Amino acid sequence: MADFEVDVDPAEAGFDAARLSRIDAHFDRYVEDGRLPGWLAVVSRHGRIVHLGRGGHRDVEASLPVETDTLWRLFSMTKPVTSVAAMMLAEEGLLELDDPISRWLPEFASPRVYVKGSALAPSTEPATSPIRVWHLLTHTAGLTYGFHHGHPVDAIYRAAGFEWGTPPGLDLAACSAQWAALPLVFQPGTEWNYSIATDVLGRLVEVVSGLPLDEFFESRIFAPLGMTDTGFMASSPSRLAAMYVRNPASGRATRNDAFGRMGTTRPDCLSGGGGLVSSAADYWRFTEMLRRGGERDGVRLLAPRTVSLMASNHLPGRVDLEEFGRPLFAEMPFDGHGFGLGFSVLQDPVKARTLSSAGEFAWGGAASTAFWVDPDKDLTVGFYTQLLPSSTYRLRPQLRQLVYQALVD
Q1: Three-class DSSP labels, the chain
Q2: What is the pLDDT of residues 347-404, one digit of tens each?
């Protein structure tokens, strides 16, 4: 993409160039000792790219280096895209945040909630309130993920074939019907739990819009923003990075082709929670749209007030996730963070022990990708690699430290 290159002197954007180079040196050490296969980081301020660093390989075994146009599996960095799609429909008056989702997804008309018992013999009770659109956007619906391994309902998900993916042959509509038949972990709205809520939200987008999720994304978000390399399949398979996991014996990144097949064919289930493949350039355009309050290059997807609402803490009493949520990732503690409509939201930098600014909104993906938008400093940052899981190393807090220590204005 022609506009994806450093296009401003760091000093003009308030950065110290020598300090920015610490980003490259730091992550190159991860490559040199084999912990990461390769990486790419982009730092942008006031809409101009200040730093674009990369190192290592997108495919170690084939000796293919990371390039600026390398394609990456986004996993949960798909969630903000689906959340934007839902809020576009809300702006059109086609849904409201307080609407029960059963208005469009009748399979969720009578959810039941886990009370006690084992995964094999759970005791449940009726939900006391309906699951609403707002609950899906904030992960307070009572849904879960099979890979959590923290609750009997997680095991029920795994037994039904929902752990790191979905059962073969089931499309999004069929998966939604199966999820609706499984117990909720808690009564809707009473806790936060990271979950397949955004996948259900993707199904809601399909039904409300009348379009398959991939067609909605392409026609309403990707094409207008010029995101030519983003979709549920790699636009160019030769540019798709291979997938790696940490070898517990050697500590080195080891290829994992089971996950590596993701993004090479159109999936049965179009996962709005984790299915997209993209380039750093494309996702930068998406985050720039968010930084600019819903507009990019004359194309407006959302109103500024809508983006501001999405980037506000929606947890009851505006508490942080450590108080209201269930533990997620050890490398990503949520002290000082709330949750908005599709993103984490930083409330208290001191409590979070970070140099970032209050009001930062962010999220990441299971393969250690991450992004954040800092409205106070007019900054966007993206990081890309393909190492599962994201809790393997503290890459995200390290990147924040490295970016902000270089910001000197």
Answers
A1: CCCCCCCCCHHHHCECHHHHHHHHHHHHHHHHCCCCCEEEEEEEECCEEEEEEEEEEEECCCCEECCCCCEEECHHHHHHHHHHHHHHHHHCCCCCCCCEHHHCCHHHCCCEEEEEECCCCEEEEECCCCCEHHHHHHCCCCCCCHHHCCCHHHHHHHHCCCCCCCCCCCCHHHHHHHHHCCCECCCCCCCECCCCHHHHHHHHHHHHHCCCHHHHHHHHHHHHHCCCCCECCCCCHHHECCCEEECCCCCCEEECHHHHCCCCCCCCCCCCCCCCEEEHHHHHHHHHHHHCCCEECCEECCCHHHHHHHCCCCCHHHCCHHHHECCCCCCCCCCCEEECCCCEEECCHHHHCCCCCCCCEEEECCCCCEEEEECCCCEEEEEECCEECCCCCCHHHHHHHHHHHCECC
A2: 999 999 999 999 999 999 999 999 999 999 999 999 999 999 999 999 999 999 999 9
